Amino acid sequence: MSTSSAGGSDSSPAAISAVGLRKSYGDKTVLDGIDLRIPVGSVFALLGANGAGKTTTVQILSTLISADGGRVEVAGHDLAAAPQRVRAAIGVTGQFSAVDGLITGEENMLLMADLHHLPKADGRRVAAELLDRFDLTAAAKKPASTYSGGMKRRLDIAMTLVGSPRVIFLDEPTTGLDPRSRHTMWQIIRALVADGVTVFLTTQYLEEADQLADRIAVLHHGRIAAEGSAEELKRLVPGGHVRLRFTDPHTYHQAATALRETTRDDKALTLHIPSAGSQRELRALLDWLDAAGVEADELTVHTPDLDDVFFALTGETSEVNEANHTNETRESVR
Fold first, then answer.
1. For the residues 50-54, what does the mean pLDDT come to?
2. CA proximity to 138, closest of 151, 122, 125
3. Nearest 10 degrees: CA dihedral of 158, 162, 166, 169?
4. In this structure, are 166 and 299 located in the same domain?
5. Are residues 72 and 186 in the same domain?
């Protein structure tokens, strides 16, 4: 598994880099020397249980609070030496909406334009473009208090984009949203990254990290327990296997007798073969089946999902476990 960090060998430019980041509150250590290196134009997901330090990390990287130690650069600027330049280059959408429900969606956007010191005409143009982009034009003149949860979240991100940030921090952006609104938010995030924006995402929805993130880090007791792509992290956890299903009892028994290290289910006529699901292992198994003249009716690759990874690394299940999410690939071998 790759564990590239702030000192890694990745030659692509970094949107965010941190070395030895530390933060304590009294005698409680929240961040215990974490290293991060996040390439430009990528999605990075930070996973962790409640209290693991996810929000603290976002608050430090977005200049909201100071670190006790470590060196950080965001968008090419040293966080300690040039915090104003960092603020000019980033956008932040926190766990709790920054939308003012007493004014309209359009007025919220224009307020952000004023805060960014945009000329009036430019502010109105940018507000109109973003409201249209986030499908909020029809509701622009309505009080934001009348918006649904998904609409408020879209408006929140639209407000974040008024200053054209190149790095965006999204702290649990889809918590509390229904599945349709969550998927809409995922489409928005993908579109931002396609425009070259870097997204730093914290989430407790493991499917969300699996769907969106180029790299994922698991934060546990103030340290990075593991980092890598979703597939790299899944390979850390044992339990992957290939499942062969047969309809002919004779063929099933033939395969069960010849294959080693299998778990049998004589009633279901299935065999489970330990495997990490790599291409080499699958090719070797298919070659063996061909050579033995054995035809399985179905071959299924089962790999651990991110919930398994999270539990293995932290000893805890995710706060919000979307249990219906499975990671399996089916291939007919008939």
1. 87
2. 151
3. -50
4. no
5. yes
Kindly state whether residues 321 and 229 are assigned to the same domain. Answer: no
Contacts 24+ apart (CB under 8 A), 5-14: 5/35, 5/36, 5/37, 5/224, 5/227, 6/35, 6/36, 6/37, 7/35, 7/37, 8/37, 10/37, 10/39, 12/39, 12/40, 13/39, 13/40, 13/76, 14/38, 14/39, 14/40, 14/73
Same domain, 89 and 192: yes
Looking at residue 226, its amino acid is A
User: In this structure, is residue 251 part of a structural domain?
Assistant: yes
Q: What are the pLDDT digits (tens) for 216-254?
A: 999 999 999 999 999 888 888 777 789 999 999 999 998
- Assess whether 205 and 311 both reside in one domain: no
Single out the residue in 206, 234, 262 at which a domain terminates.
234
Q: Note whether residue 125 is domain-resident.
A: no
Question: How does residue 333 score in pLDDT terms, banded at 50, 70 and 90?
Answer: very low
Does the pLDDT of residue 320 top 70, yes or no? Answer: no
Q: How many domains does the chain have?
A: 2
Rounded Cα gap, residues 322 and 96, in angstroms: 22
- CB of 156 closer than 8 Å to CB of 96: no
Residue 10: the pLDDT is 54
Q: Distance between CA atoms of 34 and 223, rounded to whole angstroms?
A: 6
Contact, 17 vs 36, CB < 8 A? yes
pLDDT tens, 144-175?
999 998 999 999 999 999 999 999 999 888 88
Length of the chain: 334
Residue 107 falls inside a structural domain: no
- Note whether 45 and 213 are within 8 A (CB): yes
- Structure tokens given for 290: 């061909």
Q: Please enumerate in sequence order all residues whose Cβ is within 8 A of that of 276, keeping only pairs 6 or more positions apart, or say none.
A: 235, 240, 303
Last residue of some domain: 234, 266, 284? 234
CA 47 to chain centre: 8
